[in-house]
Amino acid sequence: MFIPLVLFIIILYEISQHDQQLSKLSNQGTCYKILGTSHNRFVLFKFRDMFFHHFPFMVMNIKILYLDQVNESVLMSEEIVYYLKYYAAKCSTTMEIGNGNMAHTKAEFEIDLSVSPNVRYFTKYRFFMTEIHTDIVLQMSDFFKFADMFLKFKTNSTNVVFKPPRGFDWSIISNPKVKIKKIQCLAMMFYNRKIIFHYMKTIKIYRNYSDAVLMYIKVYNNSGEKMDQMLHEIELTGYRFPCYSIDNKFVIHPYIYLDPALTNIMIEFVITDIFYQHREKESLIVNHLSVILGQKTEIGFKYIKFLYYHFRRFQMRNLHTDMTNIRFLPLFKYSVRINKCHAINKVNYF
What we know:
Layout: E1 2-4, E2 12-14, H1 18-25, E3 30-34, E4 42-47, E5 57-68, E6 74-88, E7 96-98, E8 105-114, E9 123-129, E10 136-140, E11 147-154, H2 171-174, E12 183-190, E13 193-201, E14 212-221, E15 230-241, E16 255-258, E17 264-273, E18 279-287, E19 290-293, E20 299-302, E21 305-308, H3 311-314, E22 328-331, E23 335-337, E24 341-343, E25 346-348
Parallel strand pairs: 1-23, 7-11, 16-21, 16-22
Antiparallel strand pairs: 2-10, 3-4, 3-6, 4-11, 5-6, 5-8, 8-9, 10-11, 12-13, 12-15, 13-20, 14-15, 14-17, 17-18, 18-19, 24-25
């Protein structure tokens, strides 16, 4: 069984003529400040299909590969990290990219966004740049349709990108002591999936919490000789946020799809606080889609709907059970069909 994975190709949009670009930016999106610098520097994003207003902070990892324009040989590479914090709903400037001193060179950019250092990215951008001949602002789309990023390409810049000083203390923004109420919401991401989990704490434990979280969902066999054998596992990344800030209440109803051949399984949800490293767990026994609460449960999820995945039925159902729906979360092994894209005489794929 093949489930197609849509490859989101990076698209470049010219915002306007240069004399109108800066004024246009102020109405485009959400502004993030680059931390650890002596001057105010910002990156502008335009979130798409968002399930809440903005992320509190992000880590941007920029990898640049410099290639000879003639023979495509690698000249050098570098990696820069920006620590971004939400600054304002609007701003009139954004990240700059220049020619630097790299004449007759092609630069390949790969930019990842993640919730914390050393955690898998939740989306990425990829593009090539040759020599810049005119100042221009471009809008980049990401792989998984989370946020367009605005970049300002400048002809007179001596640097390719700004390089902040090393040694920034990431814990300054990643470990606030978040006040946790009995009912909590998590905005979690898994490839192009954007899922709100709504849960309640069943045990009163006084702890410090930070905003960024990992969620592991593990599926175990719950019957026969291979009982307790792990069948599948996925990892999601995301943020805590107040449930009252959800724009659309319907998005707190995630669909989790199971393999119909597995009729008696245990599903374990583990929420890991990225900074403080403590964990909260819930285990569920799912027998023919009947759900029973497992043992040693500290939290209880609400509104989750378990369904069996039947390939042919999916082609006939509405958008709520469509594979492309952002709230569809498959908890089974499946094959991925990769669509290759030929760009600049080079095969690109994800």
